Amino acid sequence: RSVIESAVEGDRSSGHHHPATMGLAHDTQPLLEKKGASVSSSWVVTERYWVLGLTSLMAFLQGGIWNTWGPIAPTVQGPYGWSDADIALLANWGPICYFIAVLPSSWLMDCKGVKLSMQIVMVLLCLGSGIRCIPTESKQTFTLLVHAGQFLNGLAGPIAMSIPPVISATFFPTEQRTLATSVMSVANYVGVAISFIGGPAIVNNPDHVEHKVFTYLAGQTALCLLGFIGVMMYFPNRPLNAPSRSAAADRTAFWRGLRDLTHCSSFWACAASYGIITGMYAGWSAYLAPNLETFYHDSQKAQDLAAWLGFWATLAGAFGGVGFGLIAERALKGKMRTMLIVLTVLSTLSYLWFALVCGGYLTKDKEDVSIMLYVSCIFGGLVLNGTIPLFYESAVENAYPIAEGSTTCVLTTFNNLGCLIFLLLPNVPGINEWPAWANWSLVGGSAVSVVILFTYQERKRRTSYDMASSPNPDDFNEKKPLSPSAALN
What we know:
Elements: H1 2-12, H2 41-66, H3 73-80, H4 84-112, H5 114-130, H6 139-155, H7 157-171, H8 177-202, H9 209-233, H10 254-261, H11 265-286, H12 288-296, H13 299-330, H14 336-358, H15 366-385, H16 388-399, H17 404-424, H18 437-453, H19 461-467, H20 484-488
C-alpha cells in the first residue's frame, strides 16, 4: 500500500491537475497516459472497482440509515410516543441537512478531491449511526439521540448522492461512465430498498421493541465501521493514468463554475424535472406505511405491505437504473432525453394506476387490489428510479466544463427540495382529512416533470471533447479537437 500511495502522491505533485481543480483546461495532450506513470492493467481495473465498491457501499448505507424509521413506524410509534409528524421529521432531516451541507460538500469534492470527501462522509455515517446506539433509559433522550443521528447522516447526503458522476468521470473511460454512474447512484436506493424489509424483519412487533431497535441500529453501525476501514486503507484521489481526455483536463474554477451554471438553461430544465419527480417519489416512499394505513386501517398490515412494496419497487429501480444506463450507453447513444421522456411518462401512468386502485375506483376485490398495487408500484419504481443515472449524466454533459461535483450537488438539491416539500405536507392543517393526498401529489408531480422535459435541450459537451481526441475522425462530428471552454459554447 505504501509503495502505491507514494507513487500516486508523487504523480499528484508533478504538475498534473485533477479534473476538478481550478482553472479552465489548458491540456492539449491527446494521450491518456501521463508521463512517468506506468501501472499494470490489472491494477487499473482493481483500483477502479475497489473505488466503485466503496463508493457504492457508502451510498447504500446513507440511504438505508435515512429510511430507518419510515418502514417500522407503525411498530415504534406507540412504544416511543411518536406521531406521524415525528416520523416525517426524522426523514426530513435528510433534505434539511442537504441544504446546510450542499455548498461545502460541492467545494470539498471539486477542490479537495474524492479521497478527503469519502473520509469525511464515512466519519459522519459512523457517528450518525453510532450515536443512536448510546444506552439510555429515557425515551425522550433516545428520541433526541435518534434525531441527532439522522441529522449527521443527512449531512453526508450531498456527497452520497452527488459523488457518483465525479467518481465515474475521474476513474472510468468514456464508454463506461454512464454504467459506473448507474451502479453507484442506484446503490443509495438499494439501501432504501433493504431498509424496507430489513427493518420490519427485525423490529417486527412491539414486544421487546427496545432490544430489537438496538439490534437494528447496531447492525447499521457495524457496516459503517467496515466502510470506514476500507476507505482509510486505500482510496486515491485519482488514478495514475487518466481514463479519458476530459478526465485529464481541468474544470472551471469553483465559484466561476457555480456562476456559469446559473446561465445554463438546459441544465435548469433537467434539474427541475429531476427534482420534482424523484424528490416527491422519495418523500412518498418514506411516507408509504402511514399512507397505506389510511386505506387498510390496520397498522401491522400497512407496515408489512409498505415494506414489500417499497423493497420490490426500489430493487426494481436499482436494476432499472443499471439496465437503462447500459442501454443509453451502448444502444441509444445521444438519446438520453428521449429515454427520460418515455420513462417519466410510464412512471406517471404507473402511479396514476396506483392512486386509482387505492381510491377504490377500479376494483373492490382485495386480492385484485393487492396484485394491482404490487404491479403498479414495482413497475413505477423500475422506470422512475431508472431515470436517475440518466439525469445525472445528462446534467454533467450539459454543464461541462463545470466540475461534476458542483453540477450534481445543485442537481440533487432539487431532489431534496421536492422531498422536503412533500414531507412537510402532513403538517398542513386539514390535509390528512383527504387520505389520498400523498398518491395524487406524486401523480401530479410526475406529470409536471414530463412537461418540463419537453423543454429540455440535450447537449453532449463532455463527450464531444473526449471524442475530439479520437484517432478516428468518423467517431465524432467535430473536425478538430475542442477545448472544454469551446465545448461549452
